[in-house]
Specification:
The protein has 13 helices and eleven strands. By secondary structure, it is α/β, with parallel strands linked by helices. It has four domains: about 55 residues, no CATH class; about 70 residues, no CATH class; about 130 residues, 3-Layer(aba) Sandwich (Rossmann fold); about 70 residues, OB fold (Dihydrolipoamide Acetyltransferase, E2P) (Beta Barrel). The chain has a six-stranded mixed β-sheet with strand order 6-10-11-9-8-7. Strands 3-2-1-4-5 form a five-stranded parallel β-sheet. Strand 10 and strand 11 form a beta hairpin.
């Protein structure tokens, strides 16, 4: 805010001086009695115009240019710089012979040729620059086009960071590339960590701890991106826009974000879908040993859990609470929320209980 006011004052002062000089010029051409009126009026008017218009000619163009440079790939910027260099070198070479042309043509023809070459070389290099850079890569390896650098990036969502499982997934070595964390996601985490609600505050602190774990305990590079979109208010919309710009997928477990991104052609790597995909395949008829840990919703049902946390509903298992029993899988249902597995007790485990009751 202070910087903006300072820029407004500087631009206003510059235009105010210009208005003052213009007032003196106008006063010299008019009646001497109105000299001070012209000088003061134009100086104040130019100062006010400069103060009001300063952001539109300084700050906003600078932000637009900075955002454009951040979005444009590095190899495109290098190609444009080479195109401009080629145009200027060729112009310098033809300036001397062109200046020998008779009349005014000797003065303006080098300028015309220079502008023409710049207008031709820059677009051509921007469009075909990667091929040209690849041609020069043997002599100048640093100018070679990166191999889809943006495609190797994985953008992290706030929910995926707070979830915490991404840190464990990264440590397994299945994820390759660079993890990119946008600055606006980091700011959202800080806001959540500073929330007055204890639950949100704990979630935010957990997310910041996960980021620290990713940065220090992972072989995969973690980068913070300053790219932002000031004209977009919602965080999810910014995330989708960033993914489209960089052509990179988003890692998230937010179902709504998944749907919005898919509609806009952005790939989302859903952690929940990954967790469901790596669960062991269970088929009806398989037998296993489970511990009944709690009662089911229906009368007589017991509930056990597999090693991956999948719930197994055991018919007639209520009377075996806190007991390891053998069960046989009867049904496996796949739902949007996960898998539901139903089982029944094996006959070998039913007989001891029946014999015990008959003895009583």
């Amino acid at each position: 805010m202070r910087t903006e006011i300072l820029i407004r004052l500087i631009v206003g002062a510059i235009l105010g001086v210009g208005g003052w000089r213009l007032g003196i010029f106008v006063a010299e051409k008019s009646d001497a009695a109105t000299e001070m009126t012209w000088v003061i009026s134009l100086a104040i008017a130019f100062f006010v115009c400069g103060f009001l218009m300063a952001p539109y000619v300084t700050i906003r163009p600078w932000r637009w240019a900075r955002r454009g440079v951040q979005i444009v790939p590095e190899y495109t910027l290098i190609a444009v710089a080479l195109g401009l260099s080629f145009a200027l070198v060729i112009t310098a070479l033809v300036t001397l012979p062109l200046s020998m042309l008779p009349g005014r043509w000797g003065d303006i023809s080098p300028i015309i040729v220079g502008v023409f070459l710049i207008c031709i070389m820059i677009p051509v290099m921007a469009l075909q620059g990667p091929a040209v850079l690849q041609f020069f890569s043997s002599a100048f390896p640093s100018l070679a086009r990166p191999k889809e650098k943006t495609g190797d990036m994985l953008i992290l969502d706030t929910n995926a960071i707070i979830d915490g499982r991404i840190a464990d997934i990264v440590q397994t070595g299945f994820i390759k590339g660079t993890i990119l964390i946008p600055k606006f996601i980091l700011n959202e985490l800080h806001l959540i960590a500073d929330s007055t609600d204890s639950l949100r505050r704990n979630r935010g602190k957990r997310g910041l701890d996960m980021l620290t774990k990713l940065q220090k305990g992972s072989d995969i590079p973690v980068q913070i991106s300053d790219m932002d979109f000031d004209n977009i208010a919602h965080i999810d919309d910014k995330l989708v826009k960033l993914a489209k710009t960089l052509k990179s997928p988003i890692i998230s477990n937010d179902t709504n974000l998944n749907r919005v991104a898919m509609l806009q052609g952005v790939k989302v790597l859903n952690i929940n879908e990954l967790a469901n995909a790596v669960k062991p395949v269970i088929l009806p008829g398989e037998e296993m040993t489970l511990r009944v840990v709690q009662e089911g919703k229906e009368p007589g049902q017991g509930v056990g859990f597999l090693d991956d946390g999948t719930m197994v509903v055991i018919e007639g298992g209520r009377r075996y609470l806190d007991t390891d029993i053998g069960v046989s899988i009867t049904r496996v249902l796949q739902t949007a929320a996960g898998r539901m597995i139903f089982a029944q007790i094996k006959e070998a485990h039913k007989e001891p209980l029946n014999n015990e009751r008959s003895q009583q």
